[in-house]
Amino acid sequence: MNPFLDYLLNAISLGMTFLLGCTGEILTEKVGHLNLGIPGIMSVGGACGCIALKLMYGSNIPPALILIISILASFVGGLLMGAIYSFLTVSLKANQNVTGLAMTTFGVGVTKFIMSEFSVKNAHQFLYALEYFRFPFAKNETALKYWGVMLYLAVIIALVTSFVLSRTRVGLHLRAVGENPAAADAVGINVTLYKYGSTCIGSGIAALGGLYYIMNYMGSAEAYKRIESLGWLAVALVIFSLWKPHLSIIASTLFGMLYIAGTRLPTLLGIKIDTSAIYLFQMLPYVVTIIVLIISSIRNKKENQPPASLGLPYFREER
Amino acid sequence: MNKPIALEMKNVSKYFGSLAANKNVDLTVYRGEILAILGENGCGKTTLMNMIAGIYYPDSGSVYVDGKEAVIHSPKDAFRHGIGMVHQHFKLVDIFTAAENIVLGIDDGKKYSINEVNHKVSEIADKYGFHIDPKKKIYDMSVSEKQTVEILKVLYRGADILILDEPSAVLTPQETDKLFDVLRRMREDGKSILIITHKLHEVLSISDRVAVLRKGEHIATVETATTTAPLLTEMMVGQKVELNINRPEPKNVRDRLEIVDISMKDADGVNVLDHVSFTARSGEILGIAGIAGSGQRELLEAIAGLKDLESGKIIFNRPKKNLPVSFYHKTYAEVVALANEGRFHYEDGTPVDFTGMSHSHICELVNSGKVLFNEDDVMDLRDKTPLQIRELGVRLSFVPEDRLGMGLVGNMDLVDNMMLRSYRKGHSLFVDRKKPSDLAKKIVDDLNVSTPSTHTPVRRLSGGNVQKVLVGREIAAAPTVLMAAYPVRGLDINSSYTIYDLLTEQKENGVAVIFVGEDLDVLVELCDRILVLCAGRVTAVLDGKTATKEEIGLYMTKTDFDNEEKESGTNEESQI
Known about the structure:
The complex is a heterodimer of chains A (about 325) and B (about 575).
Chain A: H1 3-30, H2 38-56, H3 63-91, H4 96-118, H5 124-127, H6 130-133, H7 149-167, H8 169-179, H9 181-186, H10 191-218, H11 227-240, H12 245-259, H13 261-269, H14 277-282, H15 284-299
Helix pairs in contact in A: 1-7, 1-10, 1-11, 1-12, 2-3, 2-4, 2-10, 2-11, 3-4, 3-10, 7-8, 7-10, 7-12, 8-10, 11-12, 11-15
Chain B: E1 5-16, E2 19-30, E3 34-38, H1 45-53, E4 60-65, E5 68-70, H2 75-80, E6 83-86, H3 98-103, H4 114-128, H5 143-156, E7 161-165, H6 173-188, E8 192-197, H7 200-206, E9 209-214, E10 217-223, H8 229-237, E11 254-265, E12 271-282, E13 284-289, H9 296-303, E14 311-317, H10 324-328, H11 332-340, E15 344-346, H12 359-367, E16 371-373, E17 378-380, H13 386-391, E18 396-399, H14 403-407, H15 414-422, H16 434-446, H17 463-476, E19 481-485, H18 493-508, E20 512-516, H19 520-526, E21 529-534, E22 537-543, H20 549-556, H21 563-575
Parallel strand pairs in B: 3-8, 3-9, 6-7, 7-8, 13-20, 13-21, 18-19, 19-20
Antiparallel strand pairs in B: 1-2, 1-4, 4-5, 9-10, 11-12, 11-14, 14-17, 15-16, 21-22
Helix pairs in contact in B: 8-20, 15-16, 16-17, 17-18
């Protein structure tokens, strides 16, 4: 296979990890909540999916159902993390940055505890489901084999989110809450409900990113250790894609390309570089994010700015 | 009047704590009329309207819509009864289009299509003569367009009773005329319009009837055609209340702060200060009267160096004759050194010879008033930061209206708040907490601040005590100019008198006091001169002893600035 095509296919499939995290974070940020807990939530999502698979190991549940149940388990894990985050930041109005970072620390820690328990010795107990996840290209030896079920799911979720945000009444209300909760409140929109709903569902979607990375992309028992660093990229991707889920589909591919550029580009260009330089390449997504931030700030186009009340707790005026 | 009744309020009361915002108000609104709600600041106009619009719920009394009792708990309930309110502060989402803002929150079960909304919005706009592009983003809009969106928002929901809270406050006269045309068209369409205002000429030009509120009570509702501006003013301000505030004669009055022709624009490009000129004098309390938002805040912030001006000058005359306080911390040697420079002289101009005099003798002579001190004393404070102003030796104290926002830090204790003013004092690495601590204790004792200790975070104190701490700190800085914005807002009677006495004491010490107030009774009893602001302009400078509340009230609401009146205003100033 053409090495460039191989690189691209691999980048797309890696990018879907970012895409799921990013779509979830966009939903959260659109209602005005900056959830820095995404890396933790993605980790927990991966762990929950793996626990579900482990429990189903050896039973005669049909493969399609195994797939759906494990994805749901992962989603619910994220939902619960989102619920904790929402309770703290929406109801108790805690600082969002601090809460988010706490969620990351908590989520990553819990995941390491759970996964280390059974990933090394009993990896087969969840990796047995690998072939269902990598359907329909599981037997393929090229990068296409990573194009499993969840990759399509990620794209569909991003497109649906984009549609909901821009074309539906719910999306309009949701964006209004993130821009100006007082205005939304004044016209009778239930601000708290929207904040809870969007943050929890967003966290659930982000959680799928963790499961995708372990089961669909890596297919390795040790993969959970790298989810955290990918989670941060998902947060950066939100800024890079200017809070637009449909843009983030393309942007996630670019992030994927940049992230693995260190290993792929030298072979592609036929040059030799020191292995330690890989880490320099992994920095590239962040560099381009900073560049995008600079450009969008200079252009100062209102549509490309973060939601106006992002990070601010909403206190209803004294009645 | 034969029109059917649209809305009735019977015996409605609303209390905030022990304070009555509205007391037993009865109000009737007919279909197809414009009813003006008139009253001073804080008379309960907006609270009353908020009860119809579902922001507040009345403590007692009831509201009837079309003859049926209506329970209005939320803006949504209000919409269900066909009531919509346009608030003074717009609640719009900046990055949405007009149509998106208008349709926001409506769930009629139909499929959401922005094209249909655009169409319907244009239809309503055309019906009443609005000019608006439904696809225009709010951030591209002028204030008047934003207001149009707010009104359309209410109309789109099918409201028959519209409440407008001071709609003309943000508009130019031309825009106001346009708005009024639209309102008249709505009236013809059978809608009831309640318009909160304190501009008399608007009341007279647009309304059918006027309801006057004073201190939360409904005074009367009169037919506009049968009333006049002086009659309305009288109803609005009421009888003079004797407060018996001590007002000693000003002594040693000197021009201290000259404000020359300053102008300022706000973020929306509206003139908040429009060629304001006046002089604040030492030993005098200059009152500033005006409807809330007439530029008082901006004026004080401009003087304090917090806001940039478009044009004009702020001239500060540093005391020519030294004040006793400023020499207490100078040593004998320093005074003699200044004398040797020839900085002291008698009133006829001959220099003072201090040779052979004792310290106390010199101080006595200096403080007697017979000796003048030469200093480079005229300076322009414009475009100077608060720090630069202080470095110039100008002791400006400012009690802002936003006590916990600009005045004090709520989470810090009394001592730390004292240090906000003295943090630059001393040269050692560590801050000196002793003096601020003593000062805090002194203020607590002198002003009877009720606080558990001086280490209590300020936000835990009651409003009156917070104010005492703030005023106490500002006065302790031994100012030459003291500016206080609404220093008695929210204070009980006793605390208010404490503050009045403090201000008067400062005036007697030769401080130029600028007092921004809202209670006209207080202004006419406390102040030596009263400057009246209206929409960022000075409409009059009156003598505090002869000014009446009615007179001030008229100047406060005067928006038709013809030259004659402006001149008479300046004449009065020169007479005083």
